[in-house]
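idk why but the lab printer keeps eating my pages so im just putting this in chat instead. protein + nicotinamide-adenine-dinucleotide:
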Amino acid sequence: MKKMAKNASDRPTTGMANRPGKDDLILVAGAGGFIGGALVRQLADQGYRRLRAVDKKPLPHWYQRVPEAESLVLDLSEERNCRRAVEGAVEVYNLAADMGGMGFIERFRIECLRSILINTHLIEAAWRAGTRRYFFSSSACAYNVKLQEDPNCRALKESDAYPAFAERGYGWEKLVSEMFCQEYWAERGLRTAIARFHNVYGPWGTWDGGREKAPAAICRKVIEAKHSGKHEIQIWGDGTQTRSFMYIDDCLKGIDLIMHSDALTATPINLGTSEMITINELVDIAEEIAGLKLKRRYDLAAPRGVAGRNSDNTFIKKMLNWEPGIPIRQGLKLTYQWIERQYLDRQAGRATVCDVH
Ligand code: NAD
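predcted complex ->
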Protein backbone atom coordinates (compact mmCIF):
# COMPACT_ATOMS: atom_id res chain seq x y z
CA MET A 1 0.00 0.00 0.00
CA LYS A 2 1.50 3.30 -1.11
CA LYS A 3 -0.09 5.66 1.37
CA MET A 4 -1.18 5.22 4.93
CA ALA A 5 -4.91 5.29 5.49
CA LYS A 6 -5.88 8.49 7.27
CA ASN A 7 -7.67 8.71 10.58
CA ALA A 8 -10.97 10.53 10.49
CA SER A 9 -9.51 13.07 12.91
CA ASP A 10 -6.73 13.91 10.42
CA ARG A 11 -9.23 15.07 7.86
CA PRO A 12 -10.21 18.69 7.53
CA THR A 13 -13.97 18.93 7.83
CA THR A 14 -14.71 22.46 6.74
CA GLY A 15 -13.60 25.13 4.33
CA MET A 16 -12.69 25.31 0.63
CA ALA A 17 -9.28 23.87 -0.12
CA ASN A 18 -6.94 25.58 -2.50
CA ARG A 19 -7.45 25.12 -6.19
CA PRO A 20 -4.53 23.60 -8.13
CA GLY A 21 -1.83 25.90 -9.46
CA LYS A 22 -2.24 27.17 -13.00
CA ASP A 23 0.66 24.93 -14.07
CA ASP A 24 -0.60 21.79 -12.35
CA LEU A 25 -1.78 19.08 -14.71
CA ILE A 26 -5.54 18.43 -14.73
CA LEU A 27 -7.07 15.40 -16.44
CA VAL A 28 -10.62 15.43 -17.76
CA ALA A 29 -11.85 11.95 -18.74
CA GLY A 30 -14.81 11.93 -21.13
CA ALA A 31 -13.64 15.25 -22.57
CA GLY A 32 -15.12 14.48 -25.97
CA GLY A 33 -18.58 14.46 -24.42
CA PHE A 34 -21.01 17.17 -23.39
CA ILE A 35 -20.03 17.96 -19.79
CA GLY A 36 -16.36 16.95 -20.12
CA GLY A 37 -15.93 19.20 -23.17
CA ALA A 38 -17.54 22.13 -21.39
CA LEU A 39 -15.32 21.53 -18.35
CA VAL A 40 -12.10 21.57 -20.39
CA ARG A 41 -13.27 24.77 -22.09
CA GLN A 42 -13.96 26.37 -18.70
CA LEU A 43 -10.62 25.31 -17.19
CA ALA A 44 -8.77 26.73 -20.21
CA ASP A 45 -10.74 29.99 -19.88
CA GLN A 46 -9.79 30.14 -16.20
CA GLY A 47 -6.11 30.08 -17.18
CA TYR A 48 -5.15 26.48 -16.38
CA ARG A 49 -2.29 25.86 -18.75
CA ARG A 50 -1.78 22.11 -18.45
CA LEU A 51 -4.95 20.30 -19.38
CA ARG A 52 -5.19 16.74 -20.57
CA ALA A 53 -8.44 15.84 -22.31
CA VAL A 54 -9.16 12.14 -22.88
CA ASP A 55 -11.98 10.32 -24.62
CA LYS A 56 -12.34 7.08 -26.54
CA LYS A 57 -14.06 8.77 -29.47
CA PRO A 58 -11.90 9.74 -32.45
CA LEU A 59 -11.03 13.45 -32.26
CA PRO A 60 -13.33 14.64 -35.07
CA HIS A 61 -16.25 13.25 -33.05
CA TRP A 62 -15.58 15.33 -29.94
CA TYR A 63 -18.26 17.94 -29.25
CA GLN A 64 -15.69 20.57 -28.29
CA ARG A 65 -11.97 20.54 -29.06
CA VAL A 66 -10.03 22.92 -26.86
CA PRO A 67 -6.75 23.83 -28.61
CA GLU A 68 -5.01 24.68 -25.31
CA ALA A 69 -5.48 21.08 -24.07
CA GLU A 70 -3.49 17.96 -24.86
CA SER A 71 -6.20 15.78 -26.41
CA LEU A 72 -5.73 12.01 -26.29
CA VAL A 73 -7.87 9.25 -27.70
CA LEU A 74 -7.78 6.42 -25.17
CA ASP A 75 -10.25 3.76 -24.10
CA LEU A 76 -10.29 4.20 -20.34
CA SER A 77 -11.94 0.86 -19.69
CA GLU A 78 -8.42 -0.50 -20.16
CA GLU A 79 -6.09 -0.28 -17.21
CA ARG A 80 -2.92 0.62 -19.12
CA ASN A 81 -4.70 3.54 -20.80
CA CYS A 82 -5.79 4.84 -17.40
CA ARG A 83 -2.19 4.71 -16.21
CA ARG A 84 -1.13 6.75 -19.24
CA ALA A 85 -3.98 9.23 -18.81
CA VAL A 86 -3.25 10.08 -15.17
CA GLU A 87 0.55 10.44 -15.48
CA GLY A 88 1.45 13.58 -13.54
CA ALA A 89 -2.16 14.64 -12.98
CA VAL A 90 -2.80 16.60 -9.80
CA GLU A 91 -6.56 16.50 -10.29
CA VAL A 92 -8.68 13.96 -12.18
CA TYR A 93 -12.27 14.49 -13.29
CA ASN A 94 -14.04 11.31 -14.36
CA LEU A 95 -16.86 12.30 -16.71
CA ALA A 96 -16.45 9.28 -18.99
CA ALA A 97 -19.34 6.85 -19.27
CA ASP A 98 -21.35 5.07 -21.89
CA MET A 99 -24.64 6.84 -21.44
CA GLY A 100 -27.55 8.67 -22.98
CA GLY A 101 -31.15 9.59 -22.31
CA MET A 102 -33.85 7.12 -21.28
CA GLY A 103 -33.92 5.59 -24.77
CA PHE A 104 -30.30 4.56 -24.35
CA ILE A 105 -30.07 3.57 -20.70
CA GLU A 106 -33.21 1.42 -20.82
CA ARG A 107 -32.04 -0.44 -23.95
CA PHE A 108 -28.32 -0.79 -23.32
CA ARG A 109 -27.94 -1.78 -19.69
CA ILE A 110 -24.84 -3.86 -20.31
CA GLU A 111 -23.04 -0.94 -21.97
CA CYS A 112 -23.98 1.20 -18.99
CA LEU A 113 -22.79 -1.38 -16.48
CA ARG A 114 -19.49 -1.77 -18.31
CA SER A 115 -18.62 1.85 -17.42
CA ILE A 116 -17.69 0.36 -14.04
CA LEU A 117 -14.40 -0.58 -15.73
CA ILE A 118 -13.59 3.06 -16.41
CA ASN A 119 -13.94 4.25 -12.83
CA THR A 120 -12.38 1.13 -11.36
CA HIS A 121 -9.18 1.46 -13.39
CA LEU A 122 -9.05 5.25 -13.37
CA ILE A 123 -9.33 5.67 -9.61
CA GLU A 124 -6.70 3.00 -8.97
CA ALA A 125 -4.36 4.64 -11.49
CA ALA A 126 -5.01 8.06 -9.95
CA TRP A 127 -4.22 6.81 -6.47
CA ARG A 128 -1.02 5.12 -7.69
CA ALA A 129 0.01 8.30 -9.50
CA GLY A 130 -0.43 10.37 -6.33
CA THR A 131 -3.34 12.44 -7.68
CA ARG A 132 -4.55 14.93 -5.06
CA ARG A 133 -8.25 15.07 -5.92
CA TYR A 134 -10.55 12.78 -7.89
CA PHE A 135 -14.04 13.70 -9.08
CA PHE A 136 -16.74 11.18 -10.01
CA SER A 137 -19.88 12.12 -11.95
CA SER A 138 -22.65 10.10 -10.40
CA SER A 139 -26.33 10.42 -11.18
CA ALA A 140 -29.79 10.76 -9.69
CA CYS A 141 -30.34 7.32 -11.28
CA ALA A 142 -28.44 5.93 -8.27
CA TYR A 143 -31.50 6.66 -6.09
CA ASN A 144 -34.01 4.06 -4.98
CA VAL A 145 -36.56 3.83 -7.81
CA LYS A 146 -39.31 2.91 -5.35
CA LEU A 147 -39.24 6.51 -4.14
CA GLN A 148 -39.91 7.78 -7.67
CA GLU A 149 -43.13 6.04 -8.63
CA ASP A 150 -45.35 9.10 -8.42
CA PRO A 151 -44.98 12.31 -10.47
CA ASN A 152 -45.53 14.33 -7.28
CA CYS A 153 -43.13 12.33 -5.12
CA ARG A 154 -40.97 14.26 -2.68
CA ALA A 155 -37.56 15.48 -3.75
CA LEU A 156 -34.67 13.04 -3.30
CA LYS A 157 -32.21 13.66 -0.52
CA GLU A 158 -28.78 12.08 -0.38
CA SER A 159 -29.73 9.36 2.11
CA ASP A 160 -32.44 8.09 -0.28
CA ALA A 161 -29.91 6.01 -2.21
CA TYR A 162 -30.09 3.41 0.57
CA PRO A 163 -31.67 0.91 1.06
CA ALA A 164 -30.44 0.52 -2.51
CA PHE A 165 -32.82 -0.08 -5.42
CA ALA A 166 -31.05 1.89 -8.14
CA GLU A 167 -32.12 2.12 -11.77
CA ARG A 168 -31.19 -1.14 -13.52
CA GLY A 169 -27.82 -1.02 -15.26
CA TYR A 170 -26.83 2.65 -15.30
CA GLY A 171 -27.92 3.45 -11.72
CA TRP A 172 -26.19 0.45 -10.18
CA GLU A 173 -22.96 1.26 -11.97
CA LYS A 174 -23.08 4.75 -10.48
CA LEU A 175 -23.83 3.48 -6.99
CA VAL A 176 -20.97 0.97 -6.96
CA SER A 177 -18.54 3.48 -8.46
CA GLU A 178 -19.54 5.92 -5.70
CA MET A 179 -18.61 3.22 -3.22
CA PHE A 180 -15.16 2.88 -4.80
CA CYS A 181 -14.68 6.62 -4.32
CA GLN A 182 -15.73 6.39 -0.69
CA GLU A 183 -13.41 3.47 0.05
CA TYR A 184 -10.39 4.96 -1.74
CA TRP A 185 -10.67 7.84 0.71
CA ALA A 186 -11.39 5.69 3.76
CA GLU A 187 -8.67 3.10 3.14
CA ARG A 188 -6.10 4.88 1.02
CA GLY A 189 -6.55 8.59 1.64
CA LEU A 190 -7.33 9.61 -1.96
CA ARG A 191 -9.53 12.68 -1.68
CA THR A 192 -12.62 12.00 -3.80
CA ALA A 193 -15.64 14.12 -4.71
CA ILE A 194 -18.96 12.58 -5.76
CA ALA A 195 -21.76 14.62 -7.37
CA ARG A 196 -25.14 13.10 -8.25
CA PHE A 197 -26.12 15.07 -11.36
CA HIS A 198 -29.81 15.60 -12.11
CA ASN A 199 -30.47 16.01 -15.89
CA VAL A 200 -27.89 18.37 -17.31
CA TYR A 201 -28.65 20.23 -20.54
CA GLY A 202 -27.20 23.01 -22.67
CA PRO A 203 -25.38 23.75 -25.92
CA TRP A 204 -22.64 21.42 -27.18
CA GLY A 205 -24.47 18.28 -26.13
CA THR A 206 -26.19 15.42 -27.95
CA TRP A 207 -29.37 16.62 -29.63
CA ASP A 208 -29.95 13.80 -32.10
CA GLY A 209 -29.08 10.15 -32.77
CA GLY A 210 -30.60 8.28 -29.81
CA ARG A 211 -28.44 9.36 -26.85
CA GLU A 212 -30.04 12.79 -26.42
CA LYS A 213 -31.92 13.65 -23.24
CA ALA A 214 -35.38 15.16 -22.89
CA PRO A 215 -34.55 18.92 -23.13
CA ALA A 216 -32.47 18.50 -26.30
CA ALA A 217 -34.90 15.97 -27.81
CA ILE A 218 -37.88 18.25 -27.23
CA CYS A 219 -36.07 21.32 -28.60
CA ARG A 220 -35.13 19.32 -31.71
CA LYS A 221 -38.66 18.04 -32.24
CA VAL A 222 -40.14 21.54 -31.89
CA ILE A 223 -37.51 22.90 -34.29
CA GLU A 224 -38.23 20.13 -36.81
CA ALA A 225 -41.96 20.87 -36.56
CA LYS A 226 -41.36 24.60 -37.02
CA HIS A 227 -39.16 24.23 -40.07
CA SER A 228 -41.05 21.38 -41.72
CA GLY A 229 -44.45 23.02 -41.20
CA LYS A 230 -45.78 19.74 -39.77
CA HIS A 231 -47.11 21.13 -36.51
CA GLU A 232 -47.20 18.08 -34.29
CA ILE A 233 -44.89 16.53 -31.73
CA GLN A 234 -44.47 13.04 -30.37
CA ILE A 235 -43.87 12.84 -26.62
CA TRP A 236 -42.50 9.78 -24.83
CA GLY A 237 -44.92 8.66 -22.10
CA ASP A 238 -48.02 10.63 -21.14
CA GLY A 239 -46.14 13.87 -20.46
CA THR A 240 -46.92 13.89 -16.73
CA GLN A 241 -43.47 12.59 -15.71
CA THR A 242 -41.67 15.17 -13.59
CA ARG A 243 -37.98 16.08 -13.54
CA SER A 244 -35.67 18.95 -12.73
CA PHE A 245 -33.18 20.19 -15.32
CA MET A 246 -29.82 21.85 -14.65
CA TYR A 247 -28.16 24.18 -17.13
CA ILE A 248 -24.52 23.34 -17.96
CA ASP A 249 -23.11 26.55 -16.37
CA ASP A 250 -24.63 25.58 -13.01
CA CYS A 251 -23.25 22.07 -13.41
CA LEU A 252 -19.70 23.38 -14.01
CA LYS A 253 -19.88 25.71 -11.04
CA GLY A 254 -21.14 22.88 -8.83
CA ILE A 255 -18.39 20.52 -10.01
CA ASP A 256 -15.75 23.07 -9.03
CA LEU A 257 -17.28 23.80 -5.62
CA ILE A 258 -17.80 20.13 -4.75
CA MET A 259 -14.35 19.09 -5.98
CA HIS A 260 -12.65 21.68 -3.79
CA SER A 261 -14.71 21.37 -0.63
CA ASP A 262 -12.80 19.31 1.94
CA ALA A 263 -15.95 18.95 4.00
CA LEU A 264 -17.56 17.03 1.13
CA THR A 265 -14.76 14.54 0.63
CA ALA A 266 -16.13 11.10 -0.32
CA THR A 267 -19.67 12.34 0.36
CA PRO A 268 -22.26 11.94 -2.42
CA ILE A 269 -24.20 15.16 -2.95
CA ASN A 270 -27.05 16.21 -5.24
CA LEU A 271 -26.12 18.55 -8.07
CA GLY A 272 -29.35 19.63 -9.72
CA THR A 273 -32.03 22.27 -9.57
CA SER A 274 -35.10 21.91 -7.40
CA GLU A 275 -37.33 23.47 -10.09
CA MET A 276 -39.50 20.45 -10.87
CA ILE A 277 -41.58 20.50 -14.04
CA THR A 278 -43.54 17.98 -16.08
CA ILE A 279 -42.46 16.94 -19.55
CA ASN A 280 -45.64 18.64 -20.81
CA GLU A 281 -44.45 21.89 -19.21
CA LEU A 282 -41.05 21.44 -20.82
CA VAL A 283 -42.82 21.20 -24.19
CA ASP A 284 -44.85 24.35 -23.32
CA ILE A 285 -41.62 26.28 -22.75
CA ALA A 286 -40.01 25.02 -25.97
CA GLU A 287 -43.19 25.99 -27.88
CA GLU A 288 -43.12 29.48 -26.35
CA ILE A 289 -39.49 29.91 -27.41
CA ALA A 290 -40.38 28.79 -30.94
CA GLY A 291 -43.56 30.88 -30.97
CA LEU A 292 -45.91 28.06 -31.99
CA LYS A 293 -48.34 25.48 -30.63
CA LEU A 294 -48.11 21.85 -31.68
CA LYS A 295 -50.54 18.96 -31.67
CA ARG A 296 -49.25 16.49 -29.08
CA ARG A 297 -49.14 12.76 -29.66
CA TYR A 298 -48.20 10.58 -26.71
CA ASP A 299 -46.21 7.40 -27.25
CA LEU A 300 -47.13 5.34 -24.21
CA ALA A 301 -44.89 2.44 -25.29
CA ALA A 302 -41.74 4.59 -25.41
CA PRO A 303 -39.17 4.62 -22.57
CA ARG A 304 -40.26 7.12 -19.93
CA GLY A 305 -38.04 6.42 -16.92
CA VAL A 306 -39.28 6.92 -13.37
CA ALA A 307 -42.57 8.77 -12.85
CA GLY A 308 -41.14 11.62 -10.81
CA ARG A 309 -37.77 12.94 -9.73
CA ASN A 310 -36.53 16.13 -8.14
CA SER A 311 -33.43 17.21 -6.25
CA ASP A 312 -33.66 18.04 -2.54
CA ASN A 313 -31.07 20.79 -2.18
CA THR A 314 -31.06 21.13 1.59
CA PHE A 315 -27.61 19.54 1.90
CA ILE A 316 -25.87 21.45 -0.90
CA LYS A 317 -27.24 24.76 0.39
CA LYS A 318 -25.97 23.94 3.87
CA MET A 319 -22.53 22.81 2.71
CA LEU A 320 -21.82 25.27 -0.09
CA ASN A 321 -24.22 28.10 0.59
CA TRP A 322 -25.21 27.75 -3.06
CA GLU A 323 -27.49 25.70 -5.31
CA PRO A 324 -27.99 25.59 -9.07
CA GLY A 325 -30.43 28.35 -9.90
CA ILE A 326 -30.49 29.07 -13.64
CA PRO A 327 -34.20 28.91 -14.52
CA ILE A 328 -35.25 26.36 -17.13
CA ARG A 329 -36.76 29.11 -19.33
CA GLN A 330 -33.43 30.90 -19.54
CA GLY A 331 -31.30 27.78 -20.09
CA LEU A 332 -33.71 26.17 -22.54
CA LYS A 333 -33.77 29.30 -24.71
CA LEU A 334 -29.99 29.20 -25.09
CA THR A 335 -30.11 25.46 -25.78
CA TYR A 336 -32.94 25.83 -28.29
CA GLN A 337 -31.08 28.58 -30.16
CA TRP A 338 -27.92 26.47 -30.35
CA ILE A 339 -29.80 23.36 -31.56
CA GLU A 340 -31.66 25.42 -34.14
CA ARG A 341 -28.35 26.67 -35.55
CA GLN A 342 -27.11 23.07 -35.66
CA TYR A 343 -30.31 21.96 -37.37
CA LEU A 344 -30.10 24.71 -39.98
CA ASP A 345 -26.41 23.95 -40.58
CA ARG A 346 -27.31 20.35 -41.25
CA GLN A 347 -30.09 21.39 -43.63
CA ALA A 348 -27.54 23.53 -45.43
CA GLY A 349 -25.19 20.56 -45.76
CA ARG A 350 -22.72 21.69 -43.11
CA ALA A 351 -21.46 19.22 -40.46
CA THR A 352 -22.88 19.41 -36.94
CA VAL A 353 -21.72 17.93 -33.64
CA CYS A 354 -24.15 15.02 -34.01
CA ASP A 355 -23.51 14.20 -37.66
CA VAL A 356 -20.23 12.50 -36.89
CA HIS A 357 -21.68 9.94 -34.46
P1 NAD B 1 -21.56 12.22 -22.86
O1 NAD B 1 -22.06 10.93 -23.41
O2 NAD B 1 -21.76 13.45 -23.68
O3 NAD B 1 -20.01 12.11 -22.49
C1 NAD B 1 -19.42 10.95 -21.98
C2 NAD B 1 -18.15 10.71 -22.75
O4 NAD B 1 -17.48 9.57 -22.21
C3 NAD B 1 -18.38 10.40 -24.22
O5 NAD B 1 -17.72 11.35 -25.05
C4 NAD B 1 -17.81 9.02 -24.41
O6 NAD B 1 -17.18 8.81 -25.66
C5 NAD B 1 -16.82 8.94 -23.27
N1 NAD B 1 -16.50 7.55 -22.95
C6 NAD B 1 -17.35 6.51 -22.84
N2 NAD B 1 -16.67 5.38 -22.60
C7 NAD B 1 -15.35 5.73 -22.56
C8 NAD B 1 -14.15 4.99 -22.36
N3 NAD B 1 -14.19 3.67 -22.18
N4 NAD B 1 -12.98 5.65 -22.40
C9 NAD B 1 -12.94 6.99 -22.62
N5 NAD B 1 -14.05 7.74 -22.82
C10 NAD B 1 -15.24 7.12 -22.78
O7 NAD B 1 -22.24 12.40 -21.43
P2 NAD B 1 -22.32 13.66 -20.48
O8 NAD B 1 -23.71 14.14 -20.49
O9 NAD B 1 -21.22 14.60 -20.79
O10 NAD B 1 -22.07 12.96 -19.07
C11 NAD B 1 -20.82 13.04 -18.38
C12 NAD B 1 -20.93 12.27 -17.07
O11 NAD B 1 -22.01 12.80 -16.29
C13 NAD B 1 -21.22 10.78 -17.24
O12 NAD B 1 -20.58 10.06 -16.23
C14 NAD B 1 -22.72 10.70 -17.00
O13 NAD B 1 -23.13 9.43 -16.56
C15 NAD B 1 -22.90 11.76 -15.92
N6 NAD B 1 -24.28 12.27 -15.87
C16 NAD B 1 -24.75 13.05 -16.87
C17 NAD B 1 -26.06 13.52 -16.80
C18 NAD B 1 -26.64 14.39 -17.88
O14 NAD B 1 -27.81 14.80 -17.76
N7 NAD B 1 -25.91 14.73 -18.94
C19 NAD B 1 -26.88 13.18 -15.71
C20 NAD B 1 -26.35 12.37 -14.71
C21 NAD B 1 -25.04 11.94 -14.79
